[in-house]
Design a protein that fits this description.
- The structure is a homodimer of 106-residue chains.
- Chain A is an all-alpha fold and 106 residues long.
- The first copy, chain A, is 68% helix and 0% strand.
- Chain A starts with 9 loop residues before the first helix and ends in a 20-residue tail after the last helix.
- The interface between A and B is large, with 59 and 59 residues.
């Protein structure tokens, strides 16, 4: 059973990021915010290559936070995005256990 | 009030991705999966530059899905990652409305 202390709603997190950083994010704009996302993706790559699980926890959080930030800047609801694409199983084959050709994107 | 149809738990989404694609993701490994993430990040950049909101919804979903996929491959719980870093307000200043110097990472 999921530990309720480790269960968060994506919309709550998106709202939290907006509350904490929203005004500066909008002022910075999409391109500048995307640069931050790329910086964190690079740090994630490093953590995956040579980091500890602790490092990885931090970098996954950072990438998700900056992705969420960009979503806020352009007015995208991440929960809506996820549900539209994955709300009915695999977007490619409609199965819960994907049966798509592995060379193609699911 | 959040529409309950558009409210998902991050751990549920991570579990869904694991159920749909888990075996092939583990077989592909971290590096190959990271390549997919980068492909989607590029598509997100394009959608941000010239896409419609519909395009952006799709690409945000894809980036989040592949980020979640890598987390599954390396055994990282995204909810735990987020709560550890952001569970007490801004990691830099501890405030809900961040007061950090804007040149520094929050």
């Amino acid at each position: 059973m999921t530990d309720p202390r480790h269960s968060i709603r994506l919309d709550d997190f998106q709202q939290l990021i907006g509350t904490m950083y929203g005004s500066r994010d909008v002022a910075r704009g999409v391109d500048g915010t995307f640069m931050w996302l790329m910086e964190e993706v690079g740090e994630l790559a490093e953590a995956l290559r040579k980091g500890t699980q602790q490092d990885r926890l931090e970098e996954f959080a950072d990438v998700l936070a900056w992705l969420t930030t960009i979503a806020n800047v352009v007015g995208i609801d991440l929960s809506e995005a996820i549900i539209r694409k994955y709300g009915s199983g695999c977007p490619g084959c409609g199965q819960l256990d994907c049966q798509c050709d592995q060379a193609e994107k699911p």
